[in-house]
UniProtKB/TrEMBL annotation:
Protein name: DNA 3'-5' helicase
GO CC aspect terms: cytosol; DNA helicase complex
Occurrences of domain UvrD-like helicase C-terminal (ranges): 290-579
A single GO BP: recombinational repair
Annotated source species: Bermanella marisrubri
InterPro entries: DExx_box_DNA_helicase_dom_sf, DNA_helicase_UvrD-like_C, DNA_helicase_UvrD/REP, P-loop_NTPase, UvrD-like_ATP-bd
Length: 736
C-alpha cells in the first residue's frame, strides 16, 4: 500500500471541489454543468473515504450510469490510493440490484437459480401469455403490454395496486400483467424492471436485512443523478434511511432519459428528503475551449425551465467551431472522413481521440460505409453496427430468400416473423424432413404442402408463406432495386410488425428499415471491390442488382469491427456519449426534423430534452468541434430538403467558422436547380459586388438551390471564397 497524504488527494482540485471531497460525512448534492469535474470529485471522494476516513471499500457503494464507467472508476480509485478497490460496491442500479438478489434470493422470494430475461425474451413470454388468455392480440398488442408492465414496475406498482375502474383497456393490461407475473414467478424469470422493483421490496419486506445493510454501508455516491427514475430513487431513499450519508452528483441540463422514465424532479426532491444536504456548485469547466463552452452555454440558455448555472473556463478560446453544410448525407460522411484522415495524417490526433455523434442510430449506416471505404478503423460504442441489427437481418433474410430459396438460415429466420401461425412444431417437422431426405427447408416445405404431411391449419399457413415469397419474387423482377427492398419490407409485414412495438426502439427499427431502402437507392454495383487470388482487382458480373447488393451487405457485415484495444474512431448516439469526452468531436445531422427529432418538435418538454441532448453533445468536445448538416438527406425512406437545426442558430456566430469544400459529389438531377431559380431567390447576379456584415466586400461567383435553400458563392476581398446560405447571409448588393 502506498502512503498518501491529504494534499496529494486534494491536489488537482479547485476550492469547491476540495470542499466536496474533504467535507464531513454528510449528505451532499453536487449540482454542476458539464465538464466541471463532477465525476472527478466523486472518484476523489471515494479515495478520501478510504484513505482519510479509513472506511473499508466494502462499506462504500457507488452508482454509475454504465458498467464501463464503473470499471473506469475502479481503476482511477486504485491509481489514486494504491489500494485495490476490489470490494467496492460499484455498478449501475441494475447490476447492484442483481447482486443483492443473487445473495438474498430467498428473502426476495425468488428461486435460487432465477434467470434474468432481456427485453426480447420478455416480449416472447408476454406474447405466449396473451395467446394463452385468448386475448385479441390486435387490440391488446403484446408490445404495448410489455411497455405497460415495465412502466408500472418503474413506478413501483404491482397488479393489485392498480385500480383501472371502468377502463377496459387498462383492465386487460392488468390481467396480462397479473398472468405475466405468475408465469415469471413459476419459471424463475426476472426482467430488468423487476430487478429494481424486487430490490426495493427486498428492503421493505425484510427490515432486519435492511438494517444489516444500513450498518454495513457508511457512504453512498451516485453519478448522473439527474437520470434516475422513480423506483431507483425510492430504493436509494429506503436504503439510506436516516443512517447513510449520500452524495448525489448531477446536472439538470443533462437529463436526457425522460422518455424512459427518468425524473429530473428527483434533484429537487433530494434536498427535501435528505435533510441538511450540503449543496455544492462547480462552475469552472476544465474540459472544453472557450468557444465550445460559449456555444454550449448559449444553446442551453434557450431552455426556460432550468435550475440555472454558469460555466466558465480559464482555457483559451481555442479554434472556432467548424460548421459544414453538406449537399447530402454522403457528402457529410465524406467530409468527416476527410477531416479524420487529415487530423491523423498531420499527427495531431490518434483515431481514438475522435468521436462521431449522431441523433439516430439509422444515421450510422452512411458513416460506417464511408469509414469502411476509406479503410479507417471505427467502433460503434454501445450499439450494433447497421447490418447486425435485428430488423435489418430480418429484411436481408427475405431478400436472400428471393435470391436463393435454399438458404435455410434465412428461411428459419423469417418463416414466422412476423407471426403467421407457423409454430415451432411445424418448423421442426420441416427440419426433420429436410434431414431425412437431404433437401433444403424450402423443398421440405413444398413437399409438406404437396404431400399433406401436416395438419390442415399448418399446411394453410405454409401455403400462404410460399405464395408470399413467390409473389415477392415476381413483383421484384420488374422494379428497381430500392423498390424491391421497399416492396419486401412492406409485404412481408416487417414494417407493420415493428410499428406495433411501442416507444423509441420501435421508432429506431422503422427508421433503420427505411434506411435500408435508402442504402439500395444509392447502391452502385461498381463500388464493390472484388479481387482475384493475387489480390488484383477484377470485374464481377452479377446476375442482378439484388445479388450485388446482398454481396456488398455481407461484406460490410463481415468486416470485423475494430476491436476494443485498436486505435479507432468512436461512433455513437448522442445518448450514449453521456459522461465521455474527446479531443475532437463531430456532430452529424443537425437538421430540423432529425435533431431536434420530428417527434419532439411540437412538444415543449420534449424539445427541451432535445436541447439538453444537444448540450450534452457539444460539451463532449475538448478542443475541436465540427457541426455538420446536410441540405438534403435520404431519411425515413425519402429524400428531404431540410433546414439547418435551430440549435445551430442558437450558437453565437462569432464562435463559428463555415467550411465549404469544393463540390466533390455529382448531385442528383433533382438537386440541380438552375442558377436562374437561385437568382430569383436571392435577387443577386453572378459577378455582382456584394457586402457582408462580417466578411466585408466580395464578388458573387456562383449560386445554386432555390427558395430558402438558395446559396451564393462569394469571393471576399479579404476572407477568401465562401458559400453562404442566402437567407442567412444578408448580402447587400453594392452596385445599385
Ligand atoms: N480541478 C481540475 N483540474 C484539472 N482538470 C480537471 C479538474 N477537474 C476536472 N478536471 C478534468 O476535466 C474533465 C471533465 O471532468 P469530469 O468528467 O469529472 O466532469 P463532469 O462534470 O463529470 O462532466 P459530465 O457532466 O460531462 O459528466 C476531465 O478531463 C477532468 O480530469
Ligand atoms: Mg461525469
Amino acid at each position: 500500500m502506498r502512503a498518501m497524504d491529504v494534499t496529494e488527494l486534494l491536489d488537482g482540485l479547485n476550492p469547491p471541489q476540495r470542499e466536496a471531497v474533504a467535507s464531513p460525512l454528510n449528505h451532499q448534492l453536487v449540482l454542476a454543468g458539464a465538464g466541471s469535474g463532477k465525476t472527478r470529485v466523486l472518484v476523489h471522494r471515494i479515495a478520501w473515504l478510504m484513505q482519510i476516513e479509513h472506511i473499508s471499500p466494502s462499506s462504500i457503494m457507488a452508482v454509475t450510469f454504465t458498467n464501463k464507467a464503473a470499471k473506469e472508476m475502479r481503476s482511477r480509485v486504485e491509481e489514486l490510493t494504491g489500494i485495490s478497490p476490489k470490494h467496492l460496491w460499484i455498478g449501475t442500479f441494475h447490476s447492484l440490484a442483481h447482486r443483492l438478489l443473487r445473495t438474498h434470493w430467498k428473502q426476495a422470494n425468488l428461486s435460487e437459480n432465477f434467470q434474468v430475461m432481456d427485453s426480447d425474451d420478455q416480449l416472447r413470454l408476454i406474447k405466449r401469455i396473451v395467446r394463452g388468455l385468448n386475448i385479441d392480440e390486435e387490440v391488446y398488442q403484446p408490445k404495448q403490454a410489455q411497455w405497460y408492465i415495465n412502466a408500472q414496475k418503474d413506478e413501483g406498482l404491482r397488479p393489485q395496486h392498480i385500480q383501472p375502474f371502468g377502463d377496459q383497456w387498462a383492465q386487460t393490461m392488468v390481467t396480462i400483467y397479473s398472468a405475466y407475473e405468475e408465469a415469471c414467478q413459476r419459471a424463475g424469470l426476472v426482467d430488468f424492471a423487476e430487478l429494481l422493483f424486487r430490490a426495493h421490496e427486498l428492503w421493505l419486506n425484510n427490515p432486519s436485512l435492511l438494517t444489516q445493510y444500513q450498518q454495513r454501508f457508511r457512504y453512498i455516491l451516485v453519478d448522473e443523478f439527474q437520470d434516475t427514475n422513480t423506483i431507483q430513487y425510492a430504493w436509494l431513499r429506503v436504503l439510506a434511511g436516516n443512517a447513510i450519508p449520500v452524495m448525489a452528483v448531477g446536472d439538470d441540463d443533462q437529463s436526457i432519459y425522460g422518455w424512459r422514465g427518468a425524473r429530473i424532479e428527483n434533484i429537487q426532491q433530494f434536498s427535501k428528503d435528505f435533510a441538511g444536504a450540503q449543496e455544492i456548485k462547480l462552475e469552472q469547466n476544465y474540459r472544453s475551449t472557450g468557444n465550445i463552452l460559449k456555444a454550449a452555454n448559449s444553446v442551453i440558455d434557450n431552455n426556460p425551465t432550468r435550475l440555472g448555472k454558469n460555466l466558465w473556463t480559464e482555457g483559451d478560446q481555442g479554434e472556432p467551431i467548424a460548421l459544414y453544410a453538406a449537399f447530402n448525407e454522403q457528402d457529410e460522411a465524406r467530409f468527416i472522413v476527410d477531416q479524420v484522415e487529415s487530423h491523423f495524417k498531420n499527427n495531431d490526433r490518434t483515431y481514438q481521440d475522435m468521436a462521431v455523434l449522431y441523433r439516430s442510430n439509422a444515421q450510422s449506416r452512411v458513416l460506417e460505409e464511408a469509414f469502411i471505404r476509406a479503410g479507417l478503423p471505427y467502433r460503434i460504442y454501445g450499439g450494433q453496427r447497421f447490418y447486425e441489427r435485428l430488423e435489418i437481418k430480418n429484411a436481408m433474410a427475405y431478400l436472400r430468400l428471393l435470391q436463393n430459396r435454399h438458404d435455410d438460415a434465412s428461411l428459419e429466420r423469417v418463416i414466422n416473423v412476423p407471426a403467421r401461425a407457423i409454430g415451432e412444431k411445424t418448423v421442426e417437422t420441416l427440419r426433420q424432413y429436410a434431414r431425412e431426405h437431404g433437401t433444403s427447408l424450402w423443398q421440405a416445405l413444398e413437399q409438406a404442402i404437396r404431400k399433406d404431411l401436416l395438419a390442415a391449419r399448418a399446411t394453410t399457413a405454409l401455403q400462404k408463406f410460399e405464395s408470399l415469397i413467390d409473389e415477392m419474387e415476381v413483383t421484384c423482377q420488374s422494379i428497381e432495386l430500392h423498390e424491391q427492398v421497399d416492396h419486401v419490407i412492406q409485404t412481408s409485414g416487417l414494417i407493420e410488425h415493428h410499428m406495433k412495438e411501442k416507444g423509441e426502439k420501435a421508432q429506431a427499427r422503422i427508421e433503420n428499415l427505411e434506411e435500408l431502402v435508402n442504402a439500395a437507392k444509392t447502391f452502385d454495383p461498381d463500388d464493390i471491390e472484388a479481387v482475384d487470388e493475387n489480390g488484383e482487382p477484377v470485374d464481377v458480373e452479377y446476375a442482378s442488382p439484388l445479388a450485388a447488393f446482398l454481396d456488398q451487405a455481407a461484406l460490410d457485415a463481415g468486416d470485423a469491427q475494430a476491436d476494443e484495444f485498436e486505435d479507432s474512431v468512436q461512433m455513437m448516439t448522442l445518448h450514449s456519449a453521456k459522461g465521455l469526452e474527446f479531443p475532437v468531436v463531430f456532430m452529424a445531422g443537425l437538421e430540423e426534423g432529425l435533431f431536434p427529432h420530428k417527434m419532439s418538435a411540437d412538444d415543449p418538454n420534449r424539445l427541451e430534452e432535445e436541447r439538453r441532448l444537444c448540450y450534452v453533445g457539444i460539451t463532449r468536445a475538448m478542443e475541436k468541434l465540427y457541426i455538420c448538416y446536410a441540405e438534403s438527406r435520404r431519411m425515413y425512406g425519402q429524400e428531404n430538403f431540410a433546414s439547418p437545426s435551430r440549435f445551430i442558430r442558437e450558437i453565437p456566430h462569432d464562435t463559428i467558422e463555415e467550411v465549404r469544400l469544393k463540390a466533390t459529389v455529382s448531385k442528383p438531377v433533382s438537386q440541380q436547380f438552375s442558377v436562374e431559380s437561385a437568382q430569383e431567390a436571392t435577387g443577386l447576379k453572378i459577378g455582382q459586388q456584394v457586402w457582408h456584415a462580417k466578411f466585408g466586400e466580395g464578388t458573387v461567383l456562383d449560386m445554386e438551390g432555390q427558395g430558402a435553400q438558395a446559396r451564393v458563392q462569394v469571393s471576399f476581398d479579404f476572407d477568401g471564397t465562401k458559400w453562404l446560405v442566402a437567407a442567412y447571409a444578408n448580402l447587400r448588393p453594392m452596385d445599385l
